[in-house]
């Protein structure tokens, strides 16, 4: 059977495409595992310097596949014969959690190219990426409350940090469709671009990030996340330690040398 995840390489950029367009690229355990393994392999492959995550067809991702036979609730007949209801906690622990932690700790920048609707876990998967670029026709839906659940895939952590408690609660409780242009306006995503320009804009951005000092970019993500849990003095200490470490690295030497010589730098640390 064909893989639900498509992998494409262009130079140092790896594009991962969620590829189940008939069901809006909703996530099965098979797709979640494929995503984890692809991210893990990319993390090991030093020739990869940027990852792009996108969806095939008209959607980015409609979240958990609510009909995945691997986790579907028992039907009436099965329930009558004593089958247990599905254990969503198990699904999260074994498939979502490892995938999301793998994504957030990638040693390279990750771009979400949100080509269409991103709902439920699909929305929070996109928002967990470093830079989120969405097509004008795309939208974000915290669909969880509509089926009696709370935001998962890191949503409870990400949303209030990104847009504040008031907006996070509005989005998560109501589960309304948030158009990409609004998502950009409230600072939930990096950019909203014309549909026809999404692929080109993301390609340019990915190539640009791939040519940048990867280690510095990744430490920037980590430092910003870590700073959420500390006071100013703690953040200053962390900045100082990182700057010290990066100051000994090749990319810094190269960056300064290139600036002085008025030439383009050639970064290689990862
Ligand atoms: O197991 C658990 O519950 C664990 C939970 C984990 C976290 C979650 O992700 S919970 C949230 C799950 N996702 C949703 O609740 C979203 C469900 N989808 C929708 O609300 C709508 O599809 C959209 C708003 C995203 C898009 O609407 P629309 O009108 O553009 O498309 P559609 O007609 O609803 O969907 C097209 C097809 O995709 C359709 O199949 P069909 O009728 O053509 O055969 C639809 O059933 C299928 N589809 C869409 N989303 C899912 C799905 N199939 C399975 N699972 C889905 N999540």
UniProtKB/TrEMBL annotation:
EC numbers on record: 5.3.3.18
Transmembrane feature ranges: none
UniProt cross-references to InterPro entries, sorted A to Z: ClpP/crotonase-like_dom_sf, Enoyl-CoA_hyd/isom_CS, Enoyl-CoA_hydra/iso, Enoyl-CoA_hydra_C
Keyword terms: Isomerase
One Pfam assignment: ECH_1
UniProt GO molecular function: isomerase activity
Claim: Isomerase is one of the keywords in the record: yes
Keyword Transmembrane helix: no
SUPFAM superfamilies according to UniProt: ClpP/crotonase (SSF52096)
Primary enzyme class: isomerase
Superkingdom per UniProt: Bacteria
Family to which this protein belongs: Belongs to the enoyl-CoA hydratase/isomerase family.
Name used for this protein in its record: 2-(1,2-epoxy-1,2-dihydrophenyl)acetyl-CoA isomerase
Species assigned in the record: Sphaerotilus sulfidivorans
């Amino acid at each position: 059977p064909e893989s639900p995840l498509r992998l494409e390489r262009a130079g140092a950029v790896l594009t991962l495409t969620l590829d189940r367009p008939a069901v809006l690229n909703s996530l099965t355990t098979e797709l979640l595992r494929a995503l984890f393994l692809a991210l893990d392999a990319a993390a090991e492959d030093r020739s990869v310097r940027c990852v792009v995550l996108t969806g095939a067809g008209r959607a980015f991702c409609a979240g958990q596949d609510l009909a995945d036979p691997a986790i579907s609730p028992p039907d009436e007949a099965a329930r009558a014969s004593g089958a247990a209801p599905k254990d969503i906690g198990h699904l999260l622990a074994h498939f979502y959690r490892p995938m999301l932690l793998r994504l957030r700790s990638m040693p390279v920048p990750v771009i979400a190219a949100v080509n269409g609707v991103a709902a439920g876990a699909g929305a929070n998967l996109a928002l967990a990426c470093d830079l989120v670029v969405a097509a004008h026709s795309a939208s974000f839906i915290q669909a969880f409350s509509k089926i009696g659940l709370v935001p998962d895939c890191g949503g409870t952590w990400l949303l209030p940090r990104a847009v504040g408690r008031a907006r996070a609660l509005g989005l998560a409780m109501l589960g309304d469709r948030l158009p990409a242009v609004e998502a950009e306006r409230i600072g939930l995503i990096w950019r909203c671009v014309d549909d026809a320009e999404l692929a080109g804009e993301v390609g340019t951005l990915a190539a640009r990030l791939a040519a940048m000092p990867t280690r510095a970019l990744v430490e920037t993500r980590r430092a910003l996340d870590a700073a959420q849990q500390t006071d100013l003095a703690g953040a200053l200490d962390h900045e100082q330690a990182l700057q010290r470490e990066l100051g000994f690295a090749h990319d810094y030497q190269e960056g300064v040398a290139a600036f002085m010589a008025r030439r383009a730098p050639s970064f290689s640390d990862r």
